[in-house]
Design brief:
By secondary structure, this protein is of the alpha+beta class. It has 5 helices and 12 strands. It has a 4-stranded antiparallel beta sheet. The protein is globular, with a radius of gyration of 31 Å.
């Protein structure tokens, strides 16, 4: 009897200790097994939380990729220049775009939406530079540009050796800074650090920029 009581106490101690090894143990005496212990790995809420966090995190590499596509949009598509186009007009001051990257308007739209959130992408596609009067047009599925709406201006920020740093990240939002250099034209130009803040948001399962960064 004393031996059985000791075994039961030992069993209680094992159960209370929260053992998480994946093993099967038998405690018994001469007259047969007294207890069988099956211990399985413990799943904690902390582990689940860490897994969810990892799924929702965005890396600096992804942010850098988005930022560089953003620069492409600014330099070569919307703000400082436009995509190359044919001289021949399909309508008054409307020309077919010749950029091989975009074989159709749908491909162009898909690209813009891969860089920016819905609200910003809609603005560039339908209301840039003027509301209801966009630079790029869908003409029978082809990507065309309105040459009257192509503009350009001086831009003195150099992003060649930019640095990017994540400031804060939540489940569907990440704030970060990007630092380049700025040199204002003058008789004695001085290069200075230039830092802007950007925001990436997770929309329909993918990370995109909340607005153009310039």
């Amino acid at each position: 009897m004393k031996k059985k009581i000791a075994i039961i106490l030992a069993l209680s101690g094992v159960l209370l200790s929260g053992c998480a090894s994946d093993e099967i143990g038998v405690i018994g005496g001469a007259d047969g097994p007294t207890a069988v212990i099956v211990a399985t790995p413990e799943t904690t809420s902390e582990t689940t939380s860490e897994e969810n966090k990892a799924e929702n995190e965005i890396s600096e590499d992804v942010l850098c990729s988005l930022f560089e596509e953003n620069l492409n949009c600014m330099y070569n598509i919307f703000v400082l220049s436009s995509l190359n186009f044919e001289e021949e007009q399909v309508a008054e001051h409307i020309h077919r775009v010749t950029d091989e990257k975009f074989g159709s308007y749908a491909e162009f739209e898909s690209y813009v939406r891969s860089v920016y959130c819905k609200e910003t992408a809609d603005m560039f596609l339908y209301d840039y530079p003027y509301e209801g009067n966009p630079m790029y047009r869908d003409v029978d599925g082809e990507l065309c540009v309105d040459s009257y709406l192509i503009g350009g201006k001086g831009y003195y920020v150099d992003w060649t050796d930019y640095t990017l740093e994540i400031v804060s990240c939540e489940e569907n939002r990440c704030e970060f800074t990007v630092t380049g250099s700025f040199t204002e034209p003058s008789d004695n130009p001085v290069e200075e650090p230039y830092t802007v803040t950007g925001v990436a948001v997770k929309e329909d399962g993918k990370w995109v920029l909340e607005a153009m960064i310039h």
